[in-house]
Amino acid sequence: MRIGTLAQATGLTRDTLRFYERQGLLKARRRANGYRDYPPEAVEWLGYIRTAQRLGFSLQEIAANLEDVERAADPDAYLQELLRDKLRVIEARIDELQALRGVLYSRLGEACPLRT
């Protein structure tokens, strides 16, 4: 399918699709006339990418894990482990933010809150 058709099917812009291709997240063949030709499964794949982004994965993380997911004996189990890892990172960040909140609250009453 051509880029315009894929853009319409996914709700993404052509620029976004080209960006994903440059990042290695999307593959297209080139027709003899130079136009990109995307496989039909690209629509579903782009849905996965968008879902992964909504779950907190960066495009760099998605790209870095792409080959491992494709090569995994059990891709679903591999993805579950990636989700667990992401959850651990988020929980650690929440702990850091809660500690920072405590420090900020403690400095609110100080005359010069930026002194160490």
UniProtKB/TrEMBL annotation:
SUPFAM superfamilies, alphabetized: Putative DNA-binding domain
Keywords linked to the UniProt accession: DNA-binding, Repressor, Transcription, Transcription regulation
Record field: transmembrane: none
Matches recorded under Pfam families: MerR_1
GO molecular function: DNA binding; DNA-binding transcription factor activity
Domain HTH merR-type: 1-68
Stored PANTHER family: MERR-FAMILY TRANSCRIPTIONAL REGULATOR (PTHR30204:SF69), REDOX-CYCLING DRUG-SENSING TRANSCRIPTIONAL ACTIVATOR SOXR (PTHR30204)
Record's protein name: MerR family transcriptional regulator
Lineage: Bacteria, Pseudomonadati, Pseudomonadota, Gammaproteobacteria, Pseudomonadales
